[in-house]
Amino acid sequence: MKTIFVTGGAGYIGTHTTVQLLEAGYEVIILDNLSNSRQEAIQRIEILTGKTVTLYVGDIRDQELLDEIFSTHSIHAVVHFAGLKAVGESVSQPLHYYDNNVAGTLVLLRMMDQYGIKRIVFSSSATVYGIPTTSPVDESFPLSATNPYGRTKLMIEEMLRDLYTADPSWSIAILRYFNPIGAHDSGTIGEDPFDVPNNLMPYITQVAAGRLKELQVFGDDYPTHDGTGVRDYIHVVDLALGHLKALEYVGNHVGVEAFNLGTGKGYSVLDLLQTFQQESGQTIPYQITGKRDGDVAAIFADPQKSKAILGWEVRHDIEAMCRDAWRWQSNNPKGYSE
Ligand code: NAD
Ligand code: UFG
């Protein structure tokens, strides 16, 4: 049985990926400092899968702890989710973001190198495509960043490329996520932001659950079919399954490769809102407000490379994403804290 070390495994994407890893027969060790997640998520994973997870509550910047973990367990590969992800917060606290995300990854990579663990799957983001003027975007699109969060992803990508250049025995998959939404169809794990959500889907579900009053739609005069922003929403379970494909890939190849994880389809804010209302039976009050700084009009993925090389394809449509997001939120109106 192969052991996968999952950093940030208690978080939204980490919990969903851990469930898929356990179901596929991997052993999972999680390191998470619980800065944006709750330990209860791990218990839910264990109940859902009937399997146990080894959890270390701690920080990826803690070299002594990594030393302990790497010397105790025989690790096949690392899936590296741990990071801070709020764009606005990264603008007001850039040093915190560079320290947590970039310096944290540096400590992790150095320790992996020391222990000869040279397979990693890294959570990057479509944010590294900056402000594209056309979509779909493929992996060869020029990279740029518009905020400190995006720059941490870009810097880590560059670190990984430099690492492979210096030592071609590394196997590195960089996964560029588009917009993960939805939840496991059991309704027992899902997205549970600590603060008022920044992202569209958790905001909508919290309005539906009565925790927030109304949605603000950021702008309706973008050059899109209805004037609202267009994104490539992807079911979090499809995203999780992409990590299993990427793990197989790094198990069989050396190199450094970036892969888009998106559906290739774009939906506007109003499309998503309407589909959510239809699938949940809830009415979501909203008002159109000003544009949010830094938002792009439209971005969606070209997922052909992931399909061709990883053999990965999405299975869930936008309706399933909305149903599953609502099942999670309606079963857990206050998230894990209940
Ligand atoms: P999340 O906040 O739910 O999960 C991240 C987890 O990492 C949390 O459990 C947090 O407690 C933990 N963590 C943060 N810093 C840590 C540290 N220094 N040491 C140990 N643990 C730490 O976020 P998510 O949505 O699951 O995102 C996972 C990864 O995917 C992140 O790197 C994020 O930047 C990236 N990503 C997310 C999205 C998205 O829309 N959700 C899009 C693109 C990329
Ligand atoms: N939106 C609203 N109201 C809200 C929240 C969002 O109208 O309350 C709109 C945005 O303007 C955008 C769309 O909904 O048009 C999606 O916004 P999200 O915040 O859900 O997602 P983004 O595409 O802006 O950002 C996400 C991640 C970032 C990542 C980026 C690119 O949150 O971390 O995708 O991958 F960098």
From TrEMBL:
Record flagged with keyword NAD: yes
Keyword list, A-Z: Carbohydrate metabolism, Isomerase, NAD
GO molecular function terms listed in the Swiss-Prot or TrEMBL record: UDP-glucose 4-epimerase activity
GO annotations of cellular component type: cytosol
One Pfam family from the record: GDP_Man_Dehyd
The EC number(s) this enzyme carries: 5.1.3.2
GO biological process: galactose metabolic process
Record's catalysed reaction(s): UDP-alpha-D-glucose = UDP-alpha-D-galactose
Keyword rRNA-binding: no
Cofactor: NAD(+)
CDD domains: UDP_G4E_1_SDR_e (cd05247)
Pathway(s) served: Carbohydrate metabolism; galactose metabolism
Domain NAD(P)-binding: residue ranges: 5-324
Quaternary data: Homodimer.
Family assignment from sequence similarity: Belongs to the NAD(P)-dependent epimerase/dehydratase family.
Protein name: UDP-glucose 4-epimerase
Lineage, highest ranks first: Bacteria, Bacillati, Bacillota, Bacilli, Bacillales
